[in-house]
Design goal:
The chain is an alpha+beta fold. It has helices spanning 2-6, 11-14, 63-77, and strands at residues 22-24, 32-35, 50-53.
Length: 95
């Protein structure tokens, strides 16, 4: 939910986030970059640029803490190894 609010996206747009779509921001190492696969507001992939993911000083609002916690629990459970999507279940696709 925090990721969806941070990138101002719909659930079906943010569910398409894949591992290859996220990386460290080379210019600002304290931030991440995420490329959304599609958006309802654009008709072409180039209309969906990379978005900067920033943390917050409040743990209730910090996207980086929430994303790290999600990934740690997801990988530890073994479900994350079988899926290309960051927010998917084993063998599950957003479709």
């Amino acid at each position: 939910m925090k990721f969806m609010v941070h990138v101002v996206g719909h659930p079906d747009d943010t569910d398409e986030l894949e591992w290859d779509d996220t990386h460290v921001n080379a210019e600002f190492p304290f931030a991440l970059l995420a490329k959304m696969r599609w958006s309802k507001n654009g008709s072409e992939e180039r209309e969906s640029p990379e978005q900067v993911l920033l943390g917050a000083m409040d743990p209730l609002f910090c996207l980086l803490i929430a994303l790290a916690t999600h990934l740690e629990l997801w990988m530890e459970s073994g479900l994350g190894h079988a899926n290309d999507h960051v927010f998917g279940l084993e063998g599950d696709t957003p479709d």
